[in-house]
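> example.struct
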């Protein structure tokens, strides 16, 4: 069995990770760490675990002292918090999967500009592998530290990768209009995320300044071999979970819809978790699963392609993808423990 530790276990992504690992046939949870609930029984925090998981949350100091117990450490913390524990775990030969942002951007200066904190783990950053399996599978298998992608970047990169890889759109024309459920904002009690603030409303936020922008640009730039600068606008929608990413690009030539759909089918033909659909995807058909559904339409009038991608932000956008990466690190079938479809309704 793969022995796992989770730091940040009581946030929404951490709780989803606990749920998946608790049900994973090849993994067991050694400890759960929480800054806010030290000493509390996890099943009292999330009562869906009553009768299933009897384990008290430990402190960060306890987590440091228990690294020898585990094979892999999952981190689900705010940016700027993963440096020291990652160094300690890797130095002990443990695998680290960071669901946060601290090892996603390769350029430290860019990280510090966007996240407004100093990065003090440059040596570790150099060996971190971006954990999007559909693009970096071979590198992930050999990694010690995996930077789990953000939720918006996962949906958007998977939507656009076939186009930029094959030079089918003008890279300067890319616009991403994306919507997320409220769990994407985390579990902290913030006024803007209260029920009365988000119900019956939708709003754009972090216009031109969202921190996932450089992550999307970096990865699509690696895929295309070109520098990419794009426009990314996120929105908060009145639903618990899910991301719908609508991506626009100016086509470099005349391509039929069927030609592009076939390109996508070929590009993702061996990918269990990516499905190319005829109808534009809906978040409800990926909710509660590690799936990504993608479809597209060609607008002949404007010579643009519109690609629509749907994921569950807490699973393929966070915890499920982290377990997908764990499976790769330990030589398991990639879909082990996460092969379930969405639950509808």
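> example.seq
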């Amino acid at each position: 069995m793969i022995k796992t530790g989770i730091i940040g276990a009581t946030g929404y992504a951490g709780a989803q990770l606990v749920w998946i690992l608790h049900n994973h046939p090849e993994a067991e949870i050694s400890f759960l760490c929480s800054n806010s609930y030290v000493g509390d029984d996890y099943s009292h925090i999330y009562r869906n675990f009553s009768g299933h998981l009897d384990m008290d949350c430990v402190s960060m100091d306890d987590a440091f002292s228990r690294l020898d117990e585990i094979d892999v450490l999952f981190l689900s913390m705010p940016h700027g918090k993963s440096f020291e524990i990652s160094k300690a775990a890797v130095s002990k030969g443990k695998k680290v999967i960071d669901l946060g942002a601290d090892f996603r951007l390769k350029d430290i200066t860019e990280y510090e500009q966007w996240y407004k904190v100093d990065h003090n783990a440059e040596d570790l950053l150099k060996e971190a592998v971006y954990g999007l399996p559909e693009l970096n599978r071979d590198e992930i298998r050999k990694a010690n530290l995996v930077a789990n992608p953000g939720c918006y970047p996962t949906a958007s990169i998977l939507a656009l990768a076939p186009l930029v890889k094959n030079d089918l759109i003008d890279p300067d024309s890319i616009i991403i209009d994306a919507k997320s459920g409220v769990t994407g904002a985390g579990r902290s009690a913030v006024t803007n995320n209260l029920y009365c603030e988000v119900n019956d409303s939708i709003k754009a936020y972090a216009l031109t300044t969202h921190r996932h922008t450089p992550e999307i640009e970096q990865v699509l730039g690696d895929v295309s071999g070109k520098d990419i600068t794009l426009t990314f606008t996120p929105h908060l929608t009145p639903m618990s979970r899910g991301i719908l990413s609508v991506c626009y690009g100016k086509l470099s030539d005349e391509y039929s819809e069927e030609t592009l759909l076939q390109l996508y089918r070929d590009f993702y033909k061996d990918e269990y978790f990516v499905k190319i659909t005829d109808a534009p995807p809906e978040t409800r058909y990926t909710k509660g699963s590690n799936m990504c559904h993608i479809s597209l339409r060609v607008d002949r009038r404007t010579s643009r392609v519109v690609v629509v991608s749907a994921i569950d932000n807490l699973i393929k956008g966070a915890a499920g993808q982290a377990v997908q990466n764990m499976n790769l690190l330990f030589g398991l079938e990639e879909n082990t423990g996460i092969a379930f479809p969405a639950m509808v309704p």
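> remarks
Residues 165 and 206 are 28 Å apart (CA to CA).
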